[in-house]
Hints:
Elements: H1 2-53, H2 57-108
Helix pairs in contact: 1-2
Amino acid sequence: MADTKRMEEEASRIGEEVQETANRGFQALATEMTDFSKRRWEDVLHSWEQLLRARHFGDVVEVQTQYAQRAFEAYTSEMSKLGEMCLGTASKPVEEASSLLDDLERTLR
């Protein structure tokens, strides 16, 4: 009976730790996405300012070309970074839970 109670408490603790790790990961993702959106918005405003100052059609094309290149590079870089963060967020709690369960199993032997 004491072992069952101890196992229940340990399992609850493991669940809480895994949930806390996942929450931190999702918070980091949300922060990164917010920062990315802010940077992109600033770039859009900067490009509009450049377009408003453009005097020739060639200048307009140049501003749009530069903006498209920056947007593409930023987007691909950000998606790569978010992908890595998602993998870390998903795999880290599983790894921690597995490790904690192994510790629990050794303790109960």
